[in-house]
């Protein structure tokens, strides 16, 4: 059991050292913000389309009443 834990600890430590040594970690914040803005824009566009379609459907005269 000790050998297993020691092996896992060594692998995890080595992986952490490699991740810390890499200078490029990416621009996560920018990507998240752009994705969120695109999702908000898509929801707004869908809401506008639904509102216009509902308005048009309600304006149709079916001759009832």
Mean pLDDT: 87
Amino-to-carboxy terminus distance: 82 Å
**What sort of overall outline do the alpha carbons produce when their principal axes are compared?**
elongated
- H-E string: HH
Strand composition percent: under 5%
Supply the number of helical segments: 2
Largest sheet: none
Annotation, overall tally of beta strands = 0
**Which spans have pLDDT < 50 for at least 5 consecutive residues?**
none
Helix content: over 70%
Q: Which structural class matches the secondary elements?
A: mainly alpha
Q: What's the gyration radius in Å?
A: 28 Å
Features:
mainly alpha; 65 residues; 2 helices
Structure description:
With 65 residues, this protein is mainly α. The protein is 80% helix and 0% strand. The mean pLDDT is 87.
Task: Describe the secondary structure blueprint for this structure.
Blueprint: H1 2-21, H2 28-59
Short description:
The chain is mainly alpha-helical. The chain has helices at 2-21, 28-59.
């Amino acid at each position: 059991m000790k050998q297993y834990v020691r092996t896992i600890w060594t692998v995890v430590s080595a992986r952490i050292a490699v991740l810390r040594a890499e200078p490029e970690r990416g621009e996560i914040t920018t990507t998240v913000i752009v994705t969120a803005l695109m999702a908000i824009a898509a929801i707004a566009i869908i809401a506008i389309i639904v509102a216009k379609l509902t308005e048009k459907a309600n304006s149709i005269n079916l001759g009832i009443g």
